[in-house]
């Protein structure tokens, strides 16, 4: 009968249009406001589209969508961040060397404070005690690996890395990607898209340092905190990351590295606006004559 057929067709259409809602956790624990800004819209849009999103960070929104929740770590700054004026006093030819120095001297202490914050925060521990299960976890991967270690040690969900600057050397081997000194984006270089032979050699040596001695140097602070706070943990950051990390979302600054190609596991989101586009405001120009 026509009425029954319509009901059956309507029911089938409802089933075909059914969308699953995922429980998503995002760990952006470093207090770097500009880095979180790049992914804020992504988490908002996931919540607006029906997914349950929980963000562990230091910058909770005042009026988030209903499905977006925050765990406030309440850490206001990095402790020794530099102002932009500093970059105006350093020759651009040596800025990459200054960045190398900053990462070597600051990252170990920054990692230790970041891990302590994650494992001792009252709000984070309250959230952890609730025992929520997540389908996927986003983890910031720029300055350090405390957020990654936290996700590896305490959750089973697959992990997606996010970087709001450029990939650091540790990221490439985790995805099984060979690092190409002539083509891949490299934060600790000023070579742009066409490096000289000297710059290629310099990049290869710096990359080797950061993926060997540097990685051990940075990770020992993370293990020290986790061994003290979670004595029975079996954390192996590199081994577990290779198994659990599936891809990386990168919001890359081409002003740092030049325009360079990315591997298939890396999804460039720069320039993609998932929010509702806004019209360009009108600008009135006044011509001045001398």
From TrEMBL:
<keyword id="KW-0732">Signal</keyword>
<keyword id="KW-0328">Glycosyltransferase</keyword>
<protein>
    <submittedName>
        <fullName>Glucosyl/glucuronosyl transferase</fullName>
    </submittedName>
</protein>
<comment type="similarity">
    <text>Belongs to the UDP-glycosyltransferase family.</text>
</comment>
<dbReference type="InterPro" id="IPR002213">
    <property type="entry name" value="UDP_glucos_trans"/>
</dbReference>
<dbReference type="Pfam" id="PF00201">
    <property type="entry name" value="UDPGT"/>
</dbReference>
<keyword id="KW-0808">Transferase</keyword>
<dbReference type="GO" id="GO:0008194">
    <property type="term" value="F:UDP-glycosyltransferase activity"/>
</dbReference>
<dbReference type="InterPro" id="IPR050271">
    <property type="entry name" value="UDP-glycosyltransferase"/>
</dbReference>
<feature type="signal peptide">
    <location>
        <begin position="1"/>
        <end position="21"/>
    </location>
</feature>
